[in-house]
Amino acid sequence: MAKNEEQKKDSYGADAITVLEGLDPVRKRPGMYIGSTSAAGLHHLIWEVVDNSIDEAMAGYATEISVSLLPDRMVEVIDNGRGIPVEKHKATGFSALETVLTKLHAGGKFGGTGYKVSGGLHGVGVSVVNALSEYLKAEIHRDGKIWQQEYSVGKPKSDIKSVGKTDHTGTTITFKADSSIFTELEFNWGKILDRLRQQSYLTKGITINVLDKREGHREKHYRFHFEGGIKSYIKSLHRGKTVKNETVFYVDKEINNSRVEVALQYNDEYNENVLSFANNIHNPEGGTHLVGFRSALTRTLNNYGRSKNILKEKQENLSGEDVREGLTAIISVKLADPQFEGQTKGKLGNAEMKGYVEQIFGDALSTFLEEHPKEAEAIIGKCVLSAQARLAARSARATILRKGALEGMTLPGKLADCSSRHPEECELYIVEGDSAGGSAKQGRDRRFQAILPLRGKILNVERARLDKMLANNEIKNLIIALGANIDEQFDLEKLRYHRIIIMTDADVDGAHIRTLLLTLFFRHFAPLLNNGHIYIAQPPLYQLKKGASVAYAYSDEEKEKIITEWGGMTDTEIIEEDEDGEKEIIESEEDANEGEGEGKKGVKSKAPTKIAIQRYKGLGEMNPDQLWNTTMNPASRIVKQVTIEDATKADQVFDMLMGNNVAPRKNFIQTHAKKVQNLDI
Ligand code: 0RA
Predict the structure, then answer these.
(1) Is any atom of ligand 1 closer than 6 Å to the C-beta of 147?
(2) Were 224 and a residue from 195, 200, 407, 508 both cysteine, which residue would form a disulfide, CB within 3.0 to 4.6 Å?
(3) In a 3-state reduction of DSSP, which class is residue 507?
(4) Residue 19 Cα distances to 118, 129, 504, 586, angstroms
(5) Catalytic residue status for 509
(6) Which domains does the chain possess?
(7) Which of 76, 325, 505, 573 is catalytic?
(8) Is any atom of ligand 1 closer than 6 Å to the C-beta of 474?
(9) How far is the CA of 141 from the centre of ligand 1 (A)?
(10) Which pLDDT score, from 0 to 100, does residue 605 have?
(11) β pairing state of 170-177 and 639-641
């Protein structure tokens, strides 16, 4: 091994390739190189190859990249760059291509001089893809010739050979992931499309084609080309939203062999959506570029506001929070030697980037404001409103959250409280809708069960400020009923009920209300979740009746089981409600008579027994007795305790469900509406 390394150093020179190592370690510990061998790792193979082509585009040579999913699990990545060098080195007999494909390049990019900046630096190189592919073919168009070489699990099947003539340059890598390495072999079209769309935004002027030619899939071809780069990205993020400044701010400048690109626009919402990238790699934890951006943003907007007297003398300076409300921004920097830090390497560490971004972005924003006074006024006006709302929220907090202020308030009229004053045994049912609330009030055990009906949907707390939240009657009622205040004033000792049970309908609306409530508890009453005080009631889906017997089923399987236990469908009349609530006989006695039922003959001679099945659509359909028997009686009910096993994960779910991005939320609610019933967060 050491000898081999020496050889390579001799042949290419230490300046070209710093450390060369064979591919054995990659096959031994693939996770170290591509993160995992599941779906994420499989897709990483594509990113790795594409990154190399994007590097070639960023270096100014390639203009177009095509990524195709082909039959037989093959993936093909074509670019029109210079082509990986193919020259054989006399001393070693290896071509540059073979070196690129069979050696780990730990010390930076092959060729050294070619790249000013490089996007593939998080990448470990195309050799890793080769090592983890049962088949890989490289085709190079260069110097008028077409060159080819095939590999199997990282080893060349033959020497590189010239197979024809060409009038252009470029590289095509075709590979098939090794099925003995990956636990997942199916590519996710949506994931690939999203990633490559984002890469297109981040590489202004590049064209990226994405093609689906797999067997068993509808053929698709997407072509991404964004002349505006991240400016187009902002516009796409703001599609369908109301914007404050019509013209998107944009700057793209080089400084000391680095490049700073920033685009921003304000919308009329509260959320901040700032994405930062270094060499096209997303930095979810931010870093020095984000710090520079934030400081320049606050400073520049304050300076402009003061100089134009939009910010009056008496007014406080705009805070960082004020200037980030409703802000959508992309910060994209390119640099030669990026350092990534933090737990997940998601944070840019290069100290110089703070100053670079601060200077380039600050100057450009200042110029933009001067040149676009209308836009400037809209932006600063929005920030001033944010500042005022912040002050209003602060005083709301001060007056309403003053220690004891909420506790002394009279209990809401809608609350049907219990008689016990021992919180350990008390339960609060939060019930969707007044009619279900009515049934629950009549059906409950009033000694220890309290009922609070909620009308309609409660406020979406993720987006609301405390002052608005407290102005919302449903939320105020809930806070007062719980008796333990909110946020930093929350006092578990004062909690009036130790079991808080969310009882909503088993439909999509019910799931939504439940999520809104869970978000509220998660954001503002975290100790309730941490201490296991939150539960979800499980009302039955069906009531089954046969003669005098009544049974309840909480799932379709359970329903089937009961039907079977009661004599099955051969000699009984099953009445089931369809979607519109119309009763429909799906199997009649007559049909059963004609059947060849053997064992059940004896039953048939008696009066026919009918099983009536009622599907509950809402809690409101149950009478008080039924509600008590099925859902509220501690001796027979099912309740699910909601725990925070993984607060971070829950936060993400809440973010996704509650943030402004409507599409994923809709999708999640539609596909998980049933599962959410059993959600243990
Ligand atoms: C090393 C040196 C040069 C180009 C490349 C690698 C290169 C690699 C990949 C991978 C995918 N597409 C690629 N395109 C180019 C520069 C060679 C020269 O100076 O001509």
Answers:
(1) no
(2) 200
(3) coil
(4) 18, 18, 62, 74
(5) yes
(6) 2-225 (3.30.565.10), 230-373 (3.30.230.10), 404-539+638-675 (3.40.50.670)
(7) 505
(8) no
(9) 11
(10) 38
(11) unpaired
Q: How many helices (H) and strands (E) does the chain have?
A: 23, 28
Contact partners, residue 612, CB within 8 Å, separation at least 6: 544, 545, 546, 575
Q: What percent of the chain has pLDDT over 70?
A: 79
Cβ of 141 below 6 Å from ligand 1: no
417 belongs to the catalytic site: no
In this predicted model, which residue has the larger pLDDT, 241 or 458?
241
Exposed, middle or buried by CB within 10 Å (0-12, 13-18, 19+), for 595? middle
Which contiguous run of DSSP H or E holds residue 370?
helix 352-371
Model-level pTM greater than 0.70?
no
Identify the three-state secondary structure at position 378.
helix
The three-point CA angle 180-184-190 to 5° equals: 145
Element (H or E) spanning 552, and its range?
A: strand 549-553
Active site residue 655: no
Locus of tokens 């088993």: 506
Instruction: State the DSSP H helix or E strand holding residue 31, giving kind and residue range, or none if neither.
Output: helix 30-34
Mutation test residue for ligand 1: of 52, 61, 130, the one with most atoms within 8 Å of CB:
52
Query: Which atom of ligand 1 is closest in space to residue 111's alpha carbon?
Result: 2
Q: What is the pLDDT of residue 658?
A: 53
* Burial environment of residue 472 by CB neighbours within 10 A (0 to 12, 13 to 18, 19 or more): middle
> Cα(33) to centroid of ligand 1, in Å?
21
Active site residue 507: yes
CA distance 257 to 346: 23
| Ligand 1: centre distance to CA 287 (Å) | 30
508-548 pLDDT, tens digit per residue, is 788 778 888 888 888 789 899 889 899 989 888 888 888 88
SS3 readout for 587-615: ECHHHHHHCCCCCCHHHHCCCCEEEEEEE
Distance CA 166, CA 433 (A): 72
**Is the confidence at residue 47, as pLDDT, over 90?**
yes
Name the catalytic one among 56, 432, 462, 573: 432
Q: In what helix (H) or strand (E) does residue 577 lie, and over which residues does it extend?
A: strand 572-577
pLDDT digits (tens, 9 = 90+) for 464-515: 677 777 778 888 899 999 998 888 788 999 999 999 999 988 777 887 788 8
